[in-house]
Design brief:
With 417 residues, this protein is of the alpha/beta class. The chain is 38% helix and 18% strand. The protein has 17 helices and 15 strands. The structure holds pyridoxal-5'-phosphate (PLP).
């Protein structure tokens, strides 16, 4: 019930979905001129290698050897069949999950933090700035920065900075510096959008510093395709051909994209993104050009958005509280190639508890959105009497989210939010 690959089987090229998209991508626009952004516009923030990956149409992009060496600290990650969960649900479906929680930072996010740190170091940058919500991305980048000898400055959403000290301690343990955001308004609880503004301002103001984004952009989703590429091979080892449905929780889209994009060329495979009802970007947002941050400093991206000044309620799945969504994921949803579903957090924690009491592992609240969707797919298969194959991304563990479990177990969580 568990399929592993040896370290020399980490994919040596990332999968680029762009040549396989059902509709062509619209370009990002300059925030002032509203003309397509040029590589020169982005050069103060990103290394040229990542700017090239942002626009490449090559079907595969080689993974540098130094990046493979670091990814092999925990990759390939296991593929696990959730047989005990299947039994508890009484479903004829086969449920598999790709366990991204085994990375040093405890989520899928180091898959892109490592190449981003590598390319910045290779182009002579000595310091990175970034934002973090609950701290998953900030800890991934602090970890990667430590391995490549970079300084790492993290602007952490103030509500999380005040309430969730352990992720901050992880970042500091890896040598990162962490400050609450917004920096200019200590009364505001902050949002991912405003923390991005702080981090972009920092990088734009210093020659030694670049900015790193943990989700949304094409190059981030490209790096995350190692998840789906490994899963495809492991499903074959498990005797499966293709899954019927691939599920991922979706904040900015890198986790969902990472597991789903390698299946885009397989038309029989349904792709399903799970998001919170309180921040329903794909299910209730509009598709239009919008800024990636609150202050309007980033390029305008063609995406589903709730508006760049949207202030999501402070639900526990901090990693899913983003007003927009990756242009690649938005493209797939708009064209009908991918579907989306939204859940209130009561339904999400109910699924998390079912998973913990059958499979044992305690999932991150973000991950539990995918577990909810996978369970609902398995129950639908039971209803229809069909032996479907379901694959989902177990994007992170919940061992630093226990206060949310405490709230749920003791009736303090707003179930409908
Ligand atoms: C950040 C995060 C997500 C959401 O990832 P996106 O790339 O922003 O969609 C999901 N699960 C976990 C555990 C996370 O940390």
């Amino acid at each position: 019930m568990r399929w592993t690959l040896p370290p020399d089987q980490v994919p040596e090229a990332w999968f680029n979905v762009v040549p396989h998209l059902p509709a062509s991508m619209e370009p990002p626009l300059h925030p002032a001129t509203r003309q397509p952004v040029t590589p020169d516009d982005l050069a103060p923030l990103f290394p040229m290698a990542l700017i090239e990956q942002e626009v490449t149409t090559a079907p595969w992009v080689d993974v540098p050897g130094e990046v493979l060496d670091v990814l092999r600290l925990w990759r390939p990650t296991p593929l696990v069949r959730a047989t005990r969960l299947e039994k508890a649900l009484g479903t004829p479906a086969r449920i598999y999950y790709k366990d991204e929680s085994v990375s040093p930072a405890g989520s899928h996010k180091p898959n892109t933090a490592v190449p981003q740190a590598f390319y910045n170091k290779a182009e002579g940058i000595s310091r990175l700035s970034t934002e973090t919500g609950a701290g998953q991305w900030g800890s991934a980048l602090a970890f990667a920065s430590a391995l490549f000898g970079l300084e790492c400055m993290v602007y952490m959403v103030r509500a999380s900075f005040d309430q969730k000290p352990y992720r901050r301690v992880m970042m500091e343990t890896w040598g990162g510096q962490v400050v609450p955001s917004p920096v200019d308004d200590s009364a505001s609880p902050g949002s991912l959008g405003s923390a991005i503004s702080d981090a972009v301002r920092d990088a734009a103001g210093r020659d030694d510093t670049h900015y790193a984004l943990g989700s949304v952009l094409n190059h981030v989703l490209l790096h995350q395709t190692v998840i789906g590429l490994e899963a495809k091979r492991q499903l074959e080892m498990a005797g499966e051909s293709l899954p019927d449905v691939v599920v991922g929780s979706c904040g900015g889209g890198s986790n969902f994209g990472g597991i789903a994009l390698p299946f885009v060329p397989d038309p029989s495979v349904r792709l399903l993104a799970a998001e919170p009802m309180s921040c329903p970007t794909l299910t209730a947002g509009t598709f239009e050009y919008d800024f990636g941050d609150t202050a309007g400093l980033t390029p305008l991206l063609p995406m589903y958005t709730l508006g760049h000044d949207f202030m999501p309620p402070s639900i526990h799945a901090g990693g899913l509280r983003y007003h927009g969504d990756a242009p690649l994921v938005s493209n797939l949803v708009k064209s009908g190639r991918a579907e989306a579903v939204a859940y209130p957090q009561g339904k999400v924690f109910e699924a998390a508890i079912t998973f913990a009491r059958t499979q044992g592992s305690i999932p991150a609240p973000e991950t539990s959105h995918a577990i909810r969707a996978a369970i609902d797919e398995a129950l639908a298969a039971k209803e229809d009497g069909e032996q479907r194959c379901i694959l989902f991304s177990y994007s992170g563990h919940g061992l630093l989210d226990l206060s949310a479990y405490d709230d749920y177990l003791h009736g303090r969580l707003v179930l409908e939010a």
